[in-house]
Amino acid sequence: MGFYLLHEAMLESVLFARDKFLKSSGKMFPSSARILACPVSMTNHIENHLTFWNNVYGYDFSSLVSIAERNLISKPCIVFVSETQLLSTPQVIFEFECQTVLADQIQHIESKNLKFESDSSETSHGACLWFEVIFSGTDKTVVLSTGPGAPKTHWKQTVIFFPKYLSFGMDRVLEFCLDIRRASGSREYDITLELKDIEDEVIGANEVPEVDSVKIRLLKALGLDPEISAQVFTNGDEELDMD
């Protein structure tokens, strides 16, 4: 299993082994899996990565903050997120039975019109993704969660930044769409996040195609006009942010 369950198509290798070696009477563990999403505040993470430029060994490089911020939000961030950073109730965006799911069914996951009601007045910087796998036994069911608040794991959590930060506000509804699609001829997945305002207008979209495991390109549409031209930023050989 990879980050957000699907990264590098590791799950598909498990399904291949299942189809090749599992007897018809055999059992699959984990028995089921699900991917969850929730708006998240990344205030401390952003400040820690940007305020550094205000004083670099006594020199003021604050003019680089805007470039550093663009670079920061242009790629998925693999990081530990605390439960207090979540701004709403998490929602399941995809779930399946490991015994019966087909490889074709995990090539493209589309979650339209995910609506989250705010539990906080904090600024929302992006969507946090994680997964849970369920081991259903005869007498007991065990859930392994990689989410905020659960014991820390190698998988951490995956944050996809919004193209525009939002002051969520109490009782406000935040809506976005997620599209996770296997890249053609690759083991990677392209992740597109489309953010909408409360009038259902497109505020912007982050499309994060994974060229390979360490190369990311961002297609980013900014502004309130849903017809705005997209700007393409290429981050050649930069790695996923694992901090």
Highlighted features:
13 strands; 3 helices; disordered C terminus; mainly beta; six-stranded antiparallel beta sheet; 243 residues
Strand content: 35-45%
List how many beta strands DSSP finds: 13
Low-confidence stretches: 198-205, 208-242
Question: What is the tally of helical segments?
Answer: 3
Task: Summarize the amount of helix as a percent range.
Answer: 10-25%
User: Tell me about the biggest sheet?
Assistant: 7 strands, antiparallel
User: Which outline best applies?
Assistant: elongated
Q: Report Rg.
A: 19 Å
3D structure, described in words:
The chain has 243 residues and is mostly beta strands. Helix content is 12%, strand content 41%. It has three helices and 13 strands. A hairpin with a 2-residue loop joins strand 11 (210-212) and strand 12 (215-221). Residues 198-205 and 208-242 have low confidence and may be disordered.
Q: How would you summarize the topology of this molecule?
A:
Blueprint (H helix, E strand, L loop, with lengths): L9 H12 L10 E9 L2 H8 L14 H9 L3 E3 L11 E7 L10 E10 L5 E14 L4 E5 L11 E11 L5 E10 L6 E8 L5 E7 L1 E3 L2 E7 L9 E5 L8
Antiparallel strand pairs: 1-3, 1-5, 2-7, 4-8, 5-6, 5-7, 8-9, 9-10, 10-12, 11-12, 12-13
